[in-house]
Amino acid sequence: MVDYYTLAKTIDALVEGEDDAVALMATVACEVHHADDRFDWTGFYRVVGPELLKIGPYQGGHGCLTIPFSRGVCGASARLEQVQLVPDVEAFPGHIACASSTRSELVLPVWDGSGRLIAVFDIDSDQADAFTTEDAERLAAILTAVFGRV
């Protein structure tokens, strides 16, 4: 299980004074990915146009390059601007299988300081039902702290 207190303090120290969104995404993806063995793929999909996500900084194997808001778990998170906690990706209508090993997924919307959706933060696991509401809440708090300065 993640020590979210230490993770938040570490990320805060690493990003102090930084306001470049891509640099922040790279740092968050790296730190979160290495915080827990449940996290098989960890990264950002950036909002690059109307209803369109493109891959951003990530850790793990290859991800999908482009995801429309109308498809998959990441698209649903962006479209609805809500956390998507999916215990079984096979049961999620329209799931996009970027990696065949993914069994469960947690996707969180990311807003900048003005409240504009700039990305979604996607964590995949090769374990079924790997994520909890505590994971979602703690990671959402970290994302707000980091990207609220952008």
TrEMBL record:
Ranges for domain GAF: 50-142
Pfam families to which the protein is assigned, alphabetical: GAF_2 (PF13185)
Protein's name in the database: GAF domain-containing protein
Superkingdom per UniProt: Bacteria
Coiled coil: none
